[in-house]
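#onboarding

Welcome to the new folks! Below is a worked example of what a typical request in this channel looks like: someone posts a single protein sequence, and someone else replies with the predicted structure as tokens. Don't worry about understanding the tokens yet, we'll cover that in week two.

Example request:
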Amino acid sequence: MYGCQEFDENDYLVIVQNRNSKPMPWIGLYVAAASFICLLAVAADVLLGSCRKKLWFPCKYFSLNAATLTLLAVAMKLPLDLNTTMWRANDEQTKLSSTLLMSTLMGNFIISLGSMENKDILANVIALTILLITIIVNICIQISTGVVDFSFWAEEISAIIFMLVLFLTFFSCALTVPVIKKHLESKYNEIHQVASIEELMEETGSLQFVIARSVTSTITDYKWSTVWILDIQIIGVVIGTVAPLFRWFIAVKFKCLEEVRRNFKNEFVVEHYWREKLEEWKGSSIPLQIRCRRHRKVLHGIKHIVLDLCIRLQVIVILGSKLVLFISVWLMGLIISCFYHIKRFKLNLRPGSEATTQSRPTLDPSMELDLSNYVMLLEGEAPLPRKVLINIKGEVDELIHKGKMNRPQNLIGLLRKMSSFSGVKGFDSSQVPSLQSKEPPNSWTLPVVTLASIAMSISSVRSQEVELLIRSMSESLSYARLVESMEKKTGEWRSIKNAADTVWVGVELHQKWLEEDLERINREGKTCKEIVQSLANVAKMIVMEFKEQVDGRMTENPLFWPPRVIAANSMYRISQTILLDNEIGDFEGESHLFEKISVLIADILAACFTNLPKVIVSNCRCNSIEARERSVRRAALLLGETEEILSFLQYHEFTGLSPDQAACIDEWRLRTWQISSLAPVSTINNETVQSNEHVVISIQ
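Example response:
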């Protein structure tokens, strides 16, 4: 009876075990999927770097952040599994491939530290450290308990050692990044004192680029899913090796191309910035409120001992990296020397080769642009090869060319309708009475979208002219918003910006100004004057209803008005201005009024776009070192896109505004009221003049 009971219990345990193991293959597929996403992200970085000819492969899609750490934690499910016995060779290889994948990916996103802020670096490094320690401890437990087969102990231990070495390198870079930022910012400010921003080799200050070139046998519960995990992770290891391998090659190449060779002793000098942060921590006080002086002294002594060990370890890691680089350069030098002598030997065998060599023209160094003065280098770092600097400059030229290919042709056609900047004053007459005690400040975008709404309402339904105007407006608003962003930094301006956005979304997508259907208004057969008057009446009603609802409250500061009310106030004033301008006689035909409104829009946009050079320069002077490279890339694209616009505007001069005043439309309006007429069109030299007396646009 007892034996039967024992048999029944064992049979029950087998049934339970089989039932619990059923989801395991699907969990294995989940692991494979996470590994595959990591693989795709790494492959995307490799592909993007190849397309941009950045063979140091900056990390964009696979960088150290919360998302990638979560994916890594899922992909590391097998090394973290303490219970599932995996004795088959294929299963053991899968555990090993997971460990190698972790090491490869960790080495892959080392340079992504350069794109993070200091607080993000700390948080992500701590998270990665926790994950790494968990993996190593779990693997050691599996080795001691026999979950990992004895025949794979050597491979697993080697993988752990490799992972630890990479982590030490990673941690070494993480400690140095804040110091590198400080040094690069200092160098960046020095260069700005002696060079114009347009000539700055911004990519040499990219932290990612600096880091990249620096010395640094039973069926298991997972069943068939282990095959998927193994295959995907092996592919991930192979592709993940590409970027670190090319970064190593670039570091070696830079070293080989150095014009001035340093002696052996100087090659192994550990620059101060590698240990500067640790020494700073060592000299700082303990951030703990401990009253007992003896306890503070003990803790301070322990801190000194720990940080001394960390400094020594940091020095060892850097010296080891320098040794690897030195050996690599030495071997590469031998290979290059052999190829050089073989090539020389073949040339000497050819008849007339010497004469051919001597007849080759040489470039005059004085005729070439010296880019070395605009490079940001760290302490002890050799100058970058000239070919690298030319490639960086060539990338900026390519971005400008790309921008030229996407120039806003419809907008350029609209701007050619302007003859002066009179529309800046003419869209809103001072003779129109205010509906409230105060008027909201004007913006560049709200008047033009309001004028475009009126133009659509008086034109034939979806006529060709309207389509061209809509496309021109869509191209112009993105540039106008850039100009507005320079001036309006406070949150109160958000309502005015939202008012313009709300109006334009309705006009462009639904042919509606707020709730008014512009196509319906056009189909009612009203005259142009009646259409404009009806829009003015609707706008006035919206503003007056708001005034009654708040009963005087919240109306003192127009910046706090709802976007809908601000848009209605703009429509009322502009519609009434159009009606006043045409009081002397009846409205002329639809086409005449449409053309008049188009000229007003062109004048306003032209005045707005005189600020584009300032926008481009401000993008180059981005304060955040993490975002500076992206900002400069945007500036290069913007320069290419707007080059024809700037070329057109350089022949139009408006006197009396400083560059800061020129960014504000109300400053333009104030100045145009102060002078009787605008300055005549004049041809000027291709020089950028920015003084307190003139605003002149030009192309360098």
